[in-house]
Amino acid sequence: QVQLVESGGGLVQAGGSLRVACAASGRTFSSYDMGWFRQAPGKEREFIGGIKWTTGRIYYAGFVKGRFTISRDNAKNTVYLQMNSLKPEDTAVYYCAADRDNDNVYDFWGQGTQVTVSS
């Protein structure tokens, strides 16, 4: 079992940057693939990107276009999402998730952190 807690959300002006973190509890965290998602009001949850444990490969959804960067620190049991050049349409609740079996099915979710980008 893994518990995930996001932090670092907040209010930022358009063009600004923000880093959100996802702290995990559970000694097997380092073996889990991790993903970031977001959900804007009235919209479906959207995949942002993920990081594979086995290969370290990081991959992103097309809309990211180099603005977001995912990283992980296994020693700190933390995954990060660095967001640059933020736009008002990036306003959403941001979630991290853990894929226990490395099968692209996310088994554990955090509670989310609100990111609001003002124009």
Percent helix, as a range, is under 10%
- SS-based class: mainly beta
Mean pLDDT: 93
Helix count?
0
**Beginning-to-end CA distance, first to last residue:** 40 Å
General shape: globular
- Strand element count: 11
Radius of gyration: 13 Å
Strand-residue proportion: over 45%
Biggest β-sheet strands, sense, barrel: 7 strands, mixed
Runs in which pLDDT lies below 50 for 5 or more consecutive residues are none
Give the SSE string. Answer: EEEEEEEEEEE
Give keywords.
globular; 51% strand
Description:
The chain is an all-beta fold. Helix content is 0%, strand content 51%. The chain contains no helices and eleven strands. Strands 2, 4, 5, 6, 9, 10 and 11 form a seven-stranded mixed sheet that branches. A four-stranded antiparallel sheet has the order 1-3-8-7, with no helix packed on it. A hairpin with a 4-residue loop joins strand 7 (68-73) and strand 8 (78-83). The mean pLDDT is 93.
Briefly say what this structure is.
With 119 residues, the protein is mainly beta.
Helices and strands, with pairings:
Elements: E1 3-7, E2 10-13, E3 18-25, E4 33-39, E5 46-51, E6 58-60, E7 68-73, E8 78-83, E9 92-99, E10 108-109, E11 113-118
Parallel strand pairs: 2-11
Antiparallel strand pairs: 1-3, 3-8, 4-5, 4-9, 5-6, 7-8, 9-10, 9-11
